Structure formats: C-alpha cells, structure tokens
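New here. Your pick:
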Amino acid sequence: MKEKIKTLFIRPSGALKETLRENEIKINKLMLLLTAITTGVMLVYWLLSVVLPGTLLDSSNLISLVIYYLIISVIVTAVCFASKFKPKAIKYVLFIVFIDIIVSFSTQITQDDKLILVFPLIMSTRYYSMHFSLFTSLYLIFSSYWLPIIEYLTLSGDQAGAIVKLLQQHTTDIIIEMVPLYIFIILLSVVLAYNGRSVLQRQSEISQKMARTQADLDMAKNIQISQLPAEFPLREEFEIHAEMHPAKEVGGDLYDCFMIDDDHLGIVIGDVSGKGVPASLFMMMTRKLLNHLGTSIQEPAEVIRQLNVQLEKGNEENMFVTIWYGVLTISTGEIRAVNAGHNFPVIKNADGRFEKLKIKSGPFVGGMPKAKYKQYEFKLEKGSTMFIYTDGVEDACDIKDECFGSDRMIETLNANSECDPKELISAMMQTLGDYSKGAEQFDDITMLALRYK
C-alpha cells in the first residue's frame, strides 16, 4: 500500500509522462470552456436579476463583479491560445479563476447549495496529480472563506462594523457548516487522483505492451511474406503470377509454384485456420513440407496424404489447412489435382468465359491422420486461364457488411478475361478495393493465375 501511495507523489516518466502531458492540455481546453460557460451563466443571472429583483440573486448591484470576471476570462483565454495551452502554470491560472467564479456565484444565488463547490475539485482530479488536487482543495477553502468577505466589504458602506460582524458570523458558519464539507472535499480529491493515476498508468502499460506486440506482428507479417515466392518460373508454354495481400493481423495464406522436372510444374494455394503468429508458423511449415514432398513424389494425392500425416504429428493446437494442389504437365496442358477442403478453381473455357470447376473436395489437411484424398484431372486448352484463390476474395465485405461473393468475382474475371495473369490479379484487387472502400480488411487475400499458351 505504501508503494502505491508513493507513486502519487513521484514525478512520472517515460510514456506515462507523455500521456499525462497530453491529457493536461486536453483538460486545460475543457476548463477554459467551462470558465467561459460559467461566466456566461453569471451574466445571464445578473440580467435576470435586473428584470426579476430578489428572485435569483441576493443583489442586482453586481455589474462590477460581472464585468470583472468577463475581463479576466478574456485575458485568460488570450493567454491560453497564445501559449497553445502548453505551460504547466496554465492549469493553476485556469483553476484560480474558475474557483473564484464558482465561489462568487455560490454566494450570490438565493439557493443555499454548497455542493457546487465540489465541482472544481472533481475537475481538478482529471489531471491525475496529487499535488494539483491538494493545491485546488486548499485554494477552494481559502477562496470560499475570504472571497465572500471581500465582496461584502466592497458593497458595504460601514467598513469597520461590517468587518467585525462579518468575521464573527462567517467564521462561525465555516466551523459549523463547512469544515465537514472541506474534509470531504480533500478526501475526495485524494481518492479520485489516486484512482485516476492508477488507471492511467495501467492504460499506459497496456499501450506499451500492445505497441510491442504490434511490432512483433508486423515483423512476423514481413517474415511470412518473405517466405512466399516473388519470382515465378519463366517458360514459353505458360505465364503465371501470384500475390498475397495480408490483412492487419498475421494470417496463414500461402501459395507456391515450383518446377518438379522439365515438363511438370507444381502449383499450390492454401489457407491455414486461425490468425496470428501460430497460423503464420503453420503456413511456413506447410509450404516447406509440400515443396519437399512435391519434388519427390509424382502423384498429388500421395503428396497431400503424406503432408497430412506430417502436419498431424504434434499438432496439439488442432490447426489445419485447406489446400488446392495441382501438377501441370507443361507439354500437354493436363493438370492432376487434389482439393483438400479449398475453394474451387475457376477456369476460362473455350468460349472465353470463366466458370468454377466444381469437383468434390476432400478433407482439410492436418486434422485427421488417416484421411484419404482423391485426385482428379482436367486439361487447359491453348489460351485458357486458371484462377485459384483463398476465401478472402469472396468474403471481402463493404461498409454494409455484405460480402463480395462468388458472382461478383466471376463477373470481374469475365470483364478482364483477355488480361495476362498479373493484370488479371491487379484488376481483381482494384475491384475488391472499390467494393470494400471504407471497410476494414479482416482476412488475407491471396490469388494465383496461370495462362496456358
């Protein structure tokens, strides 16, 4: 408990100091606004007291007091804006003026409401400073005692008699009525300042941890992207291009294309379950294993079967990955493929229109050690294009939370059917960006396009 109390009197440093400084400037602006409003309310009350004497204020002869606070408020406003609210002394000036206005106002209204004096204390605790809260408490006590005396003497003709009479009455009122309130005010300021500083310190610590976590995630995202191929095989028989556009959070999308031998090209796209660093690590492991298996085993079904066995071992987090893996025979255009729970590929037919190749897919990879996978075959004709993707394409949403969907994807592909793979993916990303403009991307978007020449 002693250590917690000590933190209230120790000057903050580091991120907490910067946070408190920003908060101080913000509250200074708020206090200037409240000072202006309170001065305006006093002016309105004075005007009403002229029209309705004795109903709102004890005296209608307050024009000098109103003019005084108007002038002070204008001067304080000019100083605040000239200094951009930055000097530390600004808050003391603001609260001295604000407390004086509140005390003067409370002594003039006909209703006896002392709780209005608590308001400056509540506002002072927004600075989360024990020193400042104690200063405000003491000045409030000082102002509430002497200011009414000064104002009374200013309006009284019998100076000597008034001093003795008022000091006796006012001191008695202070001891009997105000001492409990002053004790309450001081305790309140201590408790609120303590709680406020503690909350702000915890928020500052959480913000620092989040900043470090975000830096780690950004690094993980960069590592993830660097693991995907940026250059693609160059052959006269085909043209291929792929891109992965990560969301803010690290995900697990993957793609790859690699030469198995001089006449066979391996093509893969996948999506790991979940988000964050675990998904990214699972993705990198999946790609490395599949690349190794794909270059040593001819049949795609056997490649995915062995990949499933390898990924299932030690998979205590129960992660899995959906994969489409195909092997293109470059000389004939034939593709042998396995779909392990992934989206259907989209193929441009002889009539130049894109359509989904809806062939039943098998189970995802990594969850069931004895899962079996069937491969299927299809052929790309000269000039055909194959487009494969992850669900981030169809699931992209607009500001109304409506998904982009399969139909819009097919329309976009058909509208750009003559484009080469790189242009096709660029056109799809442009359409997705226009559609979801203003909405946050929540999933990775990965696409691969291959045109067989």
